[in-house]
Design brief:
homodimer, 585 residues, alpha+beta, Butyryl-Coa Dehydrogenase, subunit A, domain 1, Butyryl-CoA Dehydrogenase, subunit A, domain 2, 58% helix
Chain lengths: 585, 585
């Protein structure tokens, strides 16, 4: 099992107190502990039986194109049938269109279990989520009736078609055109690349969410509209969308990354003309949380693998004397640096999961609450989203590399399985906005543009927590408060520098992102420690949480020091070197 | 061209002053500038024409086994023929056995050019180096006559057979046996795994250097002897060594990583019985420098690729206003964080290369000098070796990942070529002793066991340099001296803690390694800056060096802060968590 269900339950019931959370939201039919546990068990059974066994074989086999149709690896289609039959597709969907209406904080459980078992497979239904969100937020009733219902049963899947060869991070350079047709639909023409789950044989139909320009649309991002373009038309005929090829990639081989050619394909406008970018961002925010979760999931699967190996593999003696004198050597778990690498992984996985689930609770609040409470939840969620996406993917990659390192030479060999996590994890720092894009989003849009509202709200949460744990955990409380104070303190001067010269923003952004990430995870670990400290004394499991929290504050949080120095170094040190010297040494 | 020859010449002639270095060694026939430049040109031509074109195809094709014989990718064998004809194999070999007797600091040039063009290919002749060193240092005259001559023409290649399934980092657990035979040879039996270049079709014969135990040998590392076991016997018959399979790996697909079965294979003892580990370490030290260089080489090839892409790829506008208003977007080179990532790569590549070449000069001194000068060079070289291997491979991996990040989604696609560098680079942190093994070697053997002799010698070099650059580069001089002082200052308490509890050593070692690496690279960048500051004012190339040095001191050297905090956190924070909590969350 690539996830510790035990640990998941501890987070959900004890740290984040789901039952209490749902009651406070005033939900009509709040999910209770029994329901949540049943979902965990069922989802774990499904993912362990159906998805995990296809992870390595899907990587080895990859996808192929036969007669213009993508064929997914053996077993993917059958597993998807089981997924549909299990009713998993509609878990958090609108009940008016066939969904089960469960809060995001419940559906994230399924997401984690699926992704840690098989990320490439999970991306097929995963991409539907974006289309579902877009339709729920901006689709007409008719569109919801026709499209949403099919997505929520899982009979159809979705894609997100943003990128073109000349338009990657810069979506505003998209050239795909949409021309109105007499029947009220649009003829969409252009070529989209890097489309995850862009074509496959797992579902009856695929709904492509396409960003395109209407005739006479303004240039740049203001002239982008959003369309839904089905692979198979509603009358059963084939729409003129074709897969122009699939990419050979470093990882996620089981997911088809397609070039999609739209040749006057029939599409339907979603919402208003030229509002596509705004809609995209709504969708994208949800997707970014999911990508942050992918970082956690891969780290988690690799961590559990490495932990088992470290307990079994015997090499050398403990420096402080043999620990297994009757064996030819001690298990490598005795070596301090092996423990360090496992602790880094544990800290990233469990702290990262806590962060993702916390944001899911915020998303619940955005849906269920109104007024000031809703506004505050939205502020916090907006603020934390680039941190989740940017930092948890970067740390996820670090984490899977530690797992591989524990395996030594065996880690570099395919059959061990851990190197696949390294290859799969590498994409998470790139898609749905690179780490660099997240950093600009955080420092530019979320901090400076809002005069630090989200930051201050979150620092308020941190200070409240630090106050609450003063008694049981004085050291952690002090360190947490200091970190929050320093964070606030370094932000203001950055803002002032950026007012003079916007390159200062770009020069500081990535280090600011990491800095923020480490403080945010410190908050998460302090919450876990708070719960652990409140539990019965002598409990080994809770003692492990406290030890990991102490490790986090002693050996990971201090990474902020380097990032602080770097982000305060200023733009000149990056901008003053000539382009020539930088690119043609 | 995956290397800047210009930059290589600047380092060799201007920074490290090879001509002066050779004169000071009192070599009979010191290589002069013309000879070195000719070697650079010839080697660049060979590697660009013969090796670079096979890098991607070799990765895509990989090796295969046909009838128990490994077949290398198309073109590998022909390129090796050209290598032999060019006389490259014997460059630094003993002239008494057909070598050209050039110093290590010259042969490292060839090594760099080959490896950055095609690391997987370069490992075939690269592995010969270990056998050459072992024979030169410990072989009998007869062995040298028979084996060394063939290795120095390149007609035969070599391997290093250490690892067994149960004996990885812990070589002392090796079980392979060697039984004396009446003719004075030995019958070697056992199974070795992960043998790079273990079998192939490029050379007539392969000499396996095998660690094995004589009957009644003491257990552990004291009972290891070293043998040379040819693939083809000297009488032309096939020896009983067979390739039991090749591993499927994350990277370096072009190099065959073999399981080798020795079934009473005829072998010859090198040197004295039970001295195998000591001999192995002599060899290994040279190999570790080469692996550090591999980190630099891959980083270099990827950096040049990413720099070109950053200058060409147009996405978004500069935050401080359009820089190419007539184009649809600015080249991404205008974005501060793209510049930061390029600067990190430049700092690692050029600083790392300077470090490797500096150690090659030390190796020259060890060979050419006597008495105190030799002892000091040996001390410095021994001390720096784990830093070169440990830190340049880790930073090399960081560097290739930055290159990939600059490519965005395109970087994850195979055909772009940059993801291969990430996959290839990953092994360098594992083989020839993991980063963890390097860290223990540095802090345990090289620092604490010698009472810091090598460290103090190197800090002496640093202080001399800081003094020398006080005038032209006061800021760098001060920062360099401060770093050296702090380094010395944190070492002593570590030593004291380790005396109480050796786990303190293990707990601090990896962070100490990184700390040491960053200070060492600061020394290298200060030397480069010293040369640049002495050059003509207004020179753009030299200004680029100064700007990169300033970047290094402003944004990379401060990483020591985090490592200092971590290594001072102590062992308890790693050891106190229960094994259960660490491995079964």
């Amino acid at each position: 099992m690539p996830v510790s269900l035990n640990d998941m339950r501890f987070l959900i019931h004890d740290v984040l107190r789901y039952e209490q959370h749902y009651r406070s939201l005033g939900l009509q039919d709040p999910p209770n502990r029994e329901l949540i546990d049943a979902i965990i068990d069922e989802a774990a059974r499904f993912t362990e039986t159906e998805l995990a066994p296809l992870n390595e074989s899907g990587d080895a086999q990859g996808c192929r194109v036969v007669d213009g149709q993508v064929i997914t690896p053996d077993g993917f289609k059958q597993a998807y049938e089981t997924y549909i039959k299990g009713g998993w597709a509609g878990m958090s969907g609108d009940p008016a269109y066939g969904g089960q209406g469960l809060p995001d904080s419940v559906s994230i459980i399924l997401e984690e279990l699926m992704c840690s078992a098989n990320m490439a497979w999970t991306m097929y239904p995963g991409l539907s989520r974006g289309v579902i969100n877009a339709l729920e937020s901006h689709g007409s009733d008719e569109q919801k009736q026709i499209f949403l219902t099919k997505l929520l049963t899982g009979e159809w899947t979705g894609t997100m078609c943003l990128t073109e060869a000349q338009a990657g991070s810069d979506v505003g350079l998209a050239k795909t055109k949409a021309v109105p047709v007499a029947d009220g639909s649009y003829a969409v023409s252009g070529t989209k690349i890097f489309i995850s789950a862009g074509d496959h044989d797992m579902a009856e139909n695929i709904l492509h969410l396409v960003l395109a320009r209407l005739p006479d649309a303004p240039s740049g991002t203001r002239g982008i509209s959003m369309f839904v373009v089905p692979k198979i038309n509603l009358d059963g005929s084939r729409n003129s969308v074709s897969c122009g090829g699939i990419e050979k990639k470093m990882g996620i081989h089981g997911n088809a990354t397609c070039v999609l050619n739209f040749d006057a394909a029939k599409g339907y406008l979603i919402g208003e003309p030229n509002e596509g970018m705004r809609y995209m961002f709504t969708m994208m925010n949800g997707a970014r949380i999911v990508v942050g979760l992918q970082g956690v999931c891969l780290a988690e699967a690799a961590y559990l693998m490495a932990a088992d190996y470290a307990a079994d593999r015997e090499q050398m003696r403990s420096l402080s004397g043999p620990k297994a004198p009757d064996r030819p050597a001690d298990p490598i778990l005795v070596h301090p640096d092996v423990r360090r690498m496992l602790l880094v992984q544990k800290a990233i996985v469990e702290g990262g999961r806590a962060l993702v689930y916390y944001t899911a609770q915020l998303a619940d609040k955005v849906v269920a609450c109104r007024g000031e409470e809703q506004a505050r939840a939205e502020e916090l969620l907006d603020f934390l989203t680039p941190i989740v996406k940017g930092v948890l993917t970067e740390l996820g990659f670090e984490s899977v590399n530690h797992a591989m390192q524990i395996f030594g030479g065996h880690g570099f060999i395919r059959e061990t399985g851990v190197e696949q996590y390294v290859r799969d994890a590498r994409i998470t720092m790139i898609y749905e906005g690179t780490t660099q894009i997240q950093a600009l989003d955080l420092l530019g849009r979320k901090v400076l543009l809002t005069q630090g509202k989200g930051l201050m709200a979150f620092i308020g949460e941190i200070n409240d927590l630090a106050e609450a744990i003063k008694e049981p955990l004085p050291d952690i409380s002090v360190k947490l408060q200091e970190a929050a104070r320093e964070w606030a303190g370094l932000t203001l001067p950055l803002g002032n520098k950026a007012k003079e010269n916007l390159d200062e923003l770009g020069a500081a952004a990535v280090d600011y992102l990491f800095y923020s990430g480490y403080v945010t995870l410190a908050y998460c670990w302090a919450r876990i420690a708070q719960t652990a400290a409140a539990g019965p004394e002598g409990d080994q499991y809770l003692a492990g949480k406290l030890a990991t929290a102490r490790f986090y504050f002693a050996r990971i949080l201090p990474r902020t020091k380097s990032h602080k120095a770097a982000l305060e170094a200023g733009a000149d040190v990056l901008m003053s070197i000539s382009d020539e010297a930088l690119t043609s040494p």
